[in-house]
Amino acid sequence: MVDSHMVTVEPLGVEVACREDQTILDACLRAGVWVPHSCTHGTCGTCKAELVDGDVDHGDSSSFALMDFEREEKLLMCCARPRGPVVVEADMDADEETPSHAVDDYTGTVTLVEDIALDTRRVVVELDREIAFDAGQYMAWQLPPALVGGREGVTRTYSMANPPSSGRTLEFHVRRTPGGACSDGWVFAGLAAGDVVRLTGPYGRFVVRMSRPDRAVLVAGGTGLAPIASMIKRVLLDGPSEHGEGPAHLSLYQGARTREALYDVALFTDLAARFPDRFTYRPCLSEEEAEGYAAGMVTDVLAADHETLHGHVAYVCGPPAMVDAAMRTLMSKQLFPRDMYREEFLDESNRAAGTVRSPLIKR
Ligand SMILES: Cc1cc2nc3c(=O)[nH]c(=O)nc-3n(C[C@H](O)[C@H](O)[C@H](O)COP(=O)(O)OP(=O)(O)OC[C@H]3O[C@@H](n4cnc5c(N)ncnc54)[C@H](O)[C@@H]3O)c2cc1C
Ligand code: FES
Fold first, then answer.
1. Residues 48, 74: contact at Cβ < 8 Å?
2. Which of residues 349 and 75 earns the better pLDDT score?
3. Which of 38, 345, 363 is the pocket-test mutation for ligand 2 (most atoms within 8 Å of CB)?
4. How far apart are CA 125 and CA 42, in angstroms?
5. What CATH number corresponds to the domain at position 131?
6. More exposed terminus of the chain, fewer Cβ within 10 Å: N or C?
7. Mean pLDDT across the stretch 112-133?
C-alpha cells in the first residue's frame, strides 16, 4: 500500500489526494483539476509551479526545465511526487477555454495501421469506451516494458487527428524516429490490427479556441498535422461549441520536403472544395517543385502570402526547430504572442539536451 498525501493547489484553493508514486500533475488531472502542462515529460517547463510548503521528489525533471538552484522553491508538476503534505502555487492563466476533461486510463484495440507517407503511419484505435477531449489534445501511450528494458510506466505522447465527435475511435499519425522505442521499435516494427494498447489522457492545452472568431493560420510540419487536422475537422464538420463557432476562416500551411513526405493532401483538397469560404489549403514542398504545391519552406510561403497577419490567430505544431521558425515569421507579420498557440513535438533527445524556450510565448 503506497501512502497518499494531500496536495493543496493555489490559487485555486483545491485539495487533491496524491500517492507517493504518482506525479502531482497526474493526481490533479485525474481529479478534474486543470493545471498548466504541455509535454508531461519534464522537458518544456510549462507545468513549473512554486513549492510553497512541503517536500517532493523531483523525479525525472530535466535540469534544463528545472535548474538545480530552483529545486528548493519550485517544482515541475509532471515529475514531482509528494513526500508529505504539499502546497503548490500553479501559474494559472485566465483562459476560459482551458480543457477540463478529466484524465483517465483507456484500453484500446488497434483497428488500422497504414503507411501514409515516407516514414509516417496512421494508427486507428477503438477504445473500450467513449472519451471526451478538445481538438488538439493528445494521449500518452504505455510502452510494452519489453521495448524499454523491462521498465513499467514508460510513455510516449501522440496527438489525436480525429475530431472529438468520433466517440471511441481515435486516429494517430506517427512519424518514425530512427532508434526510437515507440515509433521505430513498435509502431514500425509489428504493431498491427487486433493489438491491444493502453492509453491515458486527454492531455495538453494546444486546443482550438472556439470563442475566437479571428481568421486563423495553421502551420503544420510532419506529423504536427495531427492536432491541426483535429482542429480543422472540429471547426468545419462538428459545428459550434458552447463557446462559439471558432475561426471565421482557416488557412492550413502544411510543409514537407517532397510529395512522398506529405500526406492527407486529398482530404484537405476536398475540404477546401467543400468549404471554399471557410478553408484554404496550402501544401508546401521545400525540395521539389510540383503543380498545385507552393514551392519553399512552409514559413517562407506563409510570409510571402501575407503582408501582415494582424487580426489573425495562429496554431503551429511540429518539430521544435520548425515551430521556432514559424513563431519568428508570425511575429515579423505583426502577430502578438497572445494570438499564437503552439505544440512542439519534443522527444527524449530534447529532454537530454534541453530546449530553447522563448520567454515571450506561452506554450
Ligand atoms: C505533446 C506532444 C505530442 C506529440 N504528438 C505526436 C504525434 O502526434 N505524432 C508523432 O509522430 N509524434 C508526436 N510526438 C512525439 C512523440 O511523443 C515521440 O517523442 C516520438 O514519436 C519519438 O518517440 P520514440 O519512442 O520513437 O523515440 P525515443 O525513444 O523517445 O527517442 C527519440 C530520440 O531521442 C534519442 N534518445 C532517447 N533517449 C535518449 C537519451 N536519454 N539521451 C539522448 N537522446 C536520447 C533517440 O535516439 C531518438 O533519436 C509528440 C510529442 C509531444 C511532446
Ligand atoms: S509539462 Fe511538465 S515540463 Fe512539460
1. yes
2. 75
3. 38
4. 27
5. 2.40.30.10
6. N
7. 97
Same domain? For 219 and 349 the reply is yes
Residues 238 and 328 placed together within one structural domain of the fold: yes
What single-letter amino acid sits at 35? V
Q: Which residues lie across from 280 on neighbouring strands?
A: 251
Range of the domain at 44: 4-89
pLDDT value of residue 363: 47
Same domain, 115 and 75: no
Q: Is 271 exposed, middle or buried (0-12, 13-18, 19+ CB in 10 A)?
A: buried
pLDDT band per the 50, 70, 90 thresholds, residue 362: very low
Block residue for cell numbers 503506497:
2
- Which DSSP string do the residues of 261-277 spell out, in sequence order? G---HHHHHHHHHH-TT
Of the candidates 58, 89, 120, which is a domain's last residue?
89
Ligand 2 atom closest to 43 (CA) = 3
Average pLDDT, the chain: 93
- For 207, the grid coordinates are 486546443
Q: How far does the centroid of ligand 1 lie from the alpha carbon of residue 134, in Å?
A: 23
Give me the mean pLDDT over the 62-89 stretch. Answer: 93
Question: What is the percentage of the chain residues whose pLDDT exceeds 70?
Answer: 96
- 227 and 314 together in one domain: yes
How many Å lie between the centroid of ligand 2 and the Cα of residue 78? 6
- Place 94 in a pLDDT band, splitting at 50, 70 and 90: low
* Over residues 88-99, mean pLDDT: 78
Number of domains in the chain: 3
- Spatial neighbors of 287 by CB under 8 A, at least 6 apart, are 257, 258
262 within a domain of the structure (yes/no): yes
CA of 345 to the centre of ligand 1 (A): 7
pLDDT at 360 over 50: no
C-alpha cell at 134: 478538445
Q: What mean pLDDT is predicted for residues 301-326?
A: 95
Residue 281, C-alpha cell as written in the block: 489549403
